[in-house]
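Ex. 9. Protein: ABC transporter related.
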Amino acid sequence: MIEVVDITKSYTIGESSVHALQGVSLTIAQGEFVAIMGASGSGKSTLMHILGMLDVPDSGQYRLMGKDVGKLNGDELATLRNNVAGFVFQQFHLLGRMSTIDNVMLPCIYSDERRDFRSDALARLEMVGLGHRADHRPNQMSGGEQQRVAIARALIRDPMLIFADEPTGNLDTKNSHEIMRILTELHQQGKTIIMVTHEHDIAAYADRVITMQDGKIIDDRKKEDAGRRSEVSGEPMKLDHQPLFKPSRMLGFVKQAFRSIAANKIRTLLSVLGILVGVASVIAMMALGSGARASMEERLKSMGSNLLSVRGGSAKIRGSAQGSGTFTRFTRQDVEAIAEFSPLVRYASGYVTGTAQMVYLNRNWSSTVEGVGIEYGKMRSTIPTIGRWFTSDEIRSRRKVAIIGTTVASELFGNDDPVGQTIKINRINFRVIGILPPKGFAGHRDQDDAVLVPVTTAMHRLLGRDYLNSIYVEVTSADRLDAAKEAIDALVRKRHKLQPNDEDSFYIRDMTEFQQMLSATTETMSMLLGSIAAISLVVGGIGIMNIMLVSVTERTREIGLRKAIGARRGDIMLQFLIESVGMTLTGGLIGIAVGVGVSVMLSTFAGWAVQTSIFSVVLATGFSVLIGLFFGLWPAKKAAGLKPVEALRYE
Ligand code: ADP
Ligand code: MG
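Predicted structure tokens for ABC transporter related:
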């Protein structure tokens, strides 16, 4: 069954190298019970690890049932171990988090068979006399009992080979003999058993004793009555690979992952907290950002998005040297001409502005007076909700009526109702007919600190001007903005008989520049908020990675055991990835709830504009999975790359 030829193995520690095996050749037939003896350090374990396919020799040949084991890669060896070998170690290597029966079933999750193995496991436990302890934890059992559980685990996959490295090394005499009785029984059932021991009375159970010294076999003798091995037909070796991502297999891994997450509650909680805070802040920040954008857009809409303003003077010199250059002075006839401009223009309104002193009883207030046309109310959304807008008759006949902003109203009237009252604007009596809808601040300017009067009244009675400061034009649709600009430009040139070189005497401006500036500002703000949140997510991810690395180190022996009983690289990798994604996803989902909660609180208690979107929830979920994958990858790779023997030896 087993045939090794001229096997060598050496270890290098710093400068010196230890030749653990120096040319070992050995043949073991099916059904034999072999004991390997020798002094400590003679290479017994090394040999057993190689025979058990837990380790590979430096040189030499190993044939198992005629198959060249040396040609197999790590995953194929793992599958082989899972199918043909069972291991019993001196240190038992049971997983403390799991019940006895789960420990016994552990090799099954790495097999390709899918069914409920509980009854199988229970049968094995009964065979070693522990059927009644199935739900106990390993740490509730004596050493002898634990080793019997380990034997039950070695048997769960019905292996042909059983490897036992000093199985009685940690046990007292009574328990040792109980273990040996079980092994003898297995031998009688036809199992091939290879056992390392340094006690003669233990070796006496075997029917062949091999003695080693300094990495060589120095003695190999069979008992007289050996050879009564039962006829067992060798099962065909199963080496075929099934895909890793079989749903049933995944389910087993997910269960394992959650068990180990649950085993370290406080630690898991703390590292999940990092992700939770990160995701919650992403959600809340994005809600704030889009809330800000939405309220900005709302405000832009009230400014009129299809709006053009036509002004006298040069666009270039406005602000600094406005006095110089020529001005086109617009009149109400210009407004009418532009207003006729269908289908490009929907509304047009003349506009004049100046400052004025307002008086009501003994109160004084200086504010901006704006003279506007009938259409201005619709164009700039300034139609009062308290009181009313101007009538065309009032505008035509220069009536002394005013609509005042909320700031002016509270300065002059306090809590009294201004509508219907008479105020003096530059010593002229005006009747207040309405209050402007509040608009808030635009930059430093209080948009509510203004008084609207008919444009005619403002020009001829208040400000003493016969021209308009500008003309506001609402274009029928935003995509006609440029066409409208050109048409109005041509019209104004024609009406004012401008020469081509008089270009700077008026200019047409649209609101898009202003809009772009505003949306760029909100964009920057959202980006800023978003990146702060993203940073906290990354920090959370690093926390997860840290805890996963600790976990890998802590569970090195567990990983070694899992590999010994047949876990492939991908299995271990998947287990750790599922654990880290499980943690980040849990944190993510709770974080979403917290983030939404915080957003709602911000809007109800602080009155901030927030807008939670499904998109941000999906994004945050996706991100927490990605972070789990990304930051779990390195620890998982580290775990998967461990060599079974080294991992098992890890202290
Ligand atoms: P035994 O099981 O017979 O006591 P081992 O097979 O464990 O002996 O070890 C044989 C020799 O190889 C010893 O000298 C031991 O120090 C050395 N050795 C075993 N494993 C390692 C290792 N991982 N690194 C370095 N040296 C090792
Ligand atoms: Mg040893």
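Check your answer against this statement. Confidence is low (pLDDT under 50) at residues 229-242, 317-324.
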